[in-house]
Amino acid sequence: MYQLDQLFPQVDEKATINKVKHFFKVTLPAMQRYSHKDINGIKSPVITDMPRGGSVGNQQEETITQRLYAGQVVERSKEAIACCDAISRQILWAVYVKENTITAAQLESGYGETRFRYYKNRACLQFADAFMIEDLHEFIK
Questions:
Q1: Residue 113 near residue 106 (C-beta atoms within 8 A)
Q2: How much is the average pLDDT of 83-97?
Q3: What is the mean pLDDT of the chain?
Q4: Which of 55, 58, 101, 123 is the most buried (most CB within 10 A)?
Q5: Given this model, what pLDDT does residue 4 score?
Q6: Largest distance between two CA atoms of the chain
Q7: Which residues pair with 11 in a beta bridge?
């Protein structure tokens, strides 16, 4: 029989929050650029008649796979944000999707600085729980 601590080890909240913030600031923008998808919606395709060089090996398949994976990261991010409660959705959307400053997002939310920071950290933890492609949790060892 499994014990609860074996199935769900204790989360290091501070490290998990930092990992989620890094994901939103670094990983997600890179995945959006690489997949040509924006978390707000799908961008129009860019059509060009410029010639391309030939491929060596199976580079084309690898590139397609990487772009598909990057697209999945973007889509699963939208789904994970949607799984969070209303306050967390609002904060994640304002800070990381609309890229408002923290001050602007705080004013938009109507919370004071300390309360906003609490809800922002809580939103990051909820996102880590809901994101299904990669485990963003850090655990206490």
A1: yes
A2: 95
A3: 86
A4: 123
A5: 67
A6: 62
A7: 139
Q: Give me the amino acid identity at 32.
A: Q
| 101 dihedral zone (left: phi>0; alpha: psi -120 to 50; beta) | beta
- Residue 10 CA to residue 6 CA, distance in Å, equals 9
For residue 88 the two structure tokens come to 């967390």
Interatomic CA distance for residues 81 and 42, integer angstroms? 17
- Distance between CA 23 and CA 107 in Å, rounded? 24
Six token digits for residue 106: 């705080």
H runs (alpha helix) in 3-112: 4-7, 13-22, 28-35, 59-83, 86-92, 102-109
C-alpha closest to that of 35 among 64, 71, 78: 71
pLDDT digits (tens, 9 = 90+) for 27-66: 999 999 999 887 775 433 444 555 555 555 578 888 888 8
Structure tokens at 10: 């204790």
